[in-house]
Write a structure and sequence with these properties.
- The protein is α/β, with parallel strands linked by helices.
- The protein has a domain at 110-261 and 296-366: Rossmann fold (3-Layer(aba) Sandwich).
- The chain is 28% helix and 15% strand.
- The chain contains 11 helices and 8 strands.
- The longest helix has 20 residues, at 14-33.
- It is elongated.
- The protein starts with a helix and ends in a 21-residue tail after the last helix.
- The model is unreliable at 1-10, 31-37, 62-72, 94-107, 237-247 and 370-387 (pLDDT under 50).
Length: 387
């Protein structure tokens, strides 16, 4: 008899557990079929990232599901509300329930500019440096770039004085290029230095998050002269001392403030050997006419040139307005998008000035588009690859 009792007490309880489990499954199935998961059970699936087909019946993928739309939300404490208010976050009367709801939107660019100064290019001369200024904040895609070419007379080539840094607040990257002055070397050194600096930026475009197909060049007076050469003279991508591969991207837009476009017609005061224009080419303009023409942007006008904005005061005594008028007429003659603005005062380039507003509208028209990336081809397709 003892043996019989031991045998009965050692029997496994699996049948009983199976019966209990089956009963629970039947009960939960009836509950789900009736749509009664319950408030606490539905909270487990709130904001669930899985597809709707993987969720239990009666529970939707969103927070406003049929089972949990009326469920109470957890309110923030007064201390947490004060902390969020100090951070500038708006608290609604109902209060958000998750941390994601409390995050403020991040602007695509902010006033916290990122500055990179003294970046070298070329052979590392003291003047061969450029500054790069990037807008702060979070963004997607690559940035359009505006290159500022300094200089009033090819001798003051300081990159530190850049009047268009406010463009970073509008979502543009800004570069200010330094180059060797005319007192150290004659033309085309200045043009070649600016081209090398732009090639350096294009080479590292992926590092800086810059779109090399959306680059504009801006300059005033002598800087406007070099800006026009960068945009119009497509043969300036190589130099005799340091040959480089052909340029893959042309400048997308050019803006000149009182630019020098035709050296031989600057005026009698510029024909003297001591003038800045004569020192640029290494001698008096009338005696070195061919060199003066080679340094004139007007010579390189052709169909297919990038859109151009020219802003020139009528009363400019140093650089006559006819310099911009002649270039504008030549560009229109070959059906190039050119805009000439003649002003009564010296154009300033602040964000609130007339010239600044014109420049911003021009850049938005020519550089801003919906492209988030750009494909850089290593070489042009051969005839066998061309369809």
């Amino acid at each position: 008899m003892l043996r019989s009792l031991c045998h009965r007490s050692c029997r496994p309880a699996v049948p009983t557990a199976c019966l209990i489990g089956a009963a629970l499954l039947v009960w939960s199935g009836n509950l789900v079929a009736a749509g009664g998961l319950g408030q606490h059970a539905s909270r487990l699936y709130r904001d669930d990232p899985r597809p709707a087909g993987d969720l239990p019946a009666g529970v939707g993928p969103s927070t406003e599901s049929a089972a949990g739309s009326n469920s109470p939300r957890r309110r923030l404490s007064r201390r947490a509300q004060r902390r969020l208010a100090r951070r500038g976050l708006v608290i609604t009367p109902d209060g958000p329930s998750t941390t994601a709801d409390l995050q403020a939107p991040v602007p695509p660019h902010s006033g916290l500019r990122i500055d990179h100064r003294g970046l070298p290019y070329g052979k590392g001369d003291a003047s061969q440096r450029f500054n790069l200024h990037l807008p702060g904040g979070c963004r997607t895609g690559r940035l359009p770039l505006v290159i500022w070419v300094p200089g009033r007379d090819w001798t003051d080539t300081s990159r530190a004085d850049c009047p268009i840094l406010w463009l970073t607040d509008r979502g543009f990257a800004v570069a200010s290029i330094g180059y060797r002055p005319s007192s150290a070397s004659t033309f085309p050194t200045q043009r070649d230095d600016c081209q090398e600096a732009m090639n350096r930026i294009i080479h590292d475009a992926a590092v800086w998050g810059i779109d090399p197909s959306r680059i504009a060049v801006v300059g005033q007076a002598a800087g406007g002269h070099l800006a026009m050469l960068l945009g119009l003279d497509d043969s300036s991508s190589t130099t005799a001392d340091d040959p480089a591969p052909p340029r893959r991207f042309r400048v997308a837009a050019i803006c000149g403030m009182s630019p020098i476009t035709h050296l031989p017609t600057l005026g009698p005061e510029h024909d003297r050997a001591s003038s800045a224009a004569s020192r640029l080419i290494g001698g008096p303009l009338p005696e070195l006419r061919e060199a003066a023409l080679a340094a004139s942007p007007l010579r390189y006008v052709s169909a297919g040139d990038p859109p151009t904005l020219l802003i020139h005061p009528r009363s400019d005594a140093a650089i006559p307005a006819s310099q911009s008028e002649r270039l504008h007429a030549a560009l229109e003659a070959v059906a190039v998008d050119s805009t000439l603005i003649l002003t009564d005062d010296e154009p300033g380039l602040t964000a609130s000035s007339q010239a600044g507003r014109l420049l911003l509208a021009f850049l938005r028209r020519t550089l801003v588009n919906e492209l988030d990336s750009v494909i850089i081809r290593d070489a042009a397709p051969t005839s066998a690859e061309t369809p």
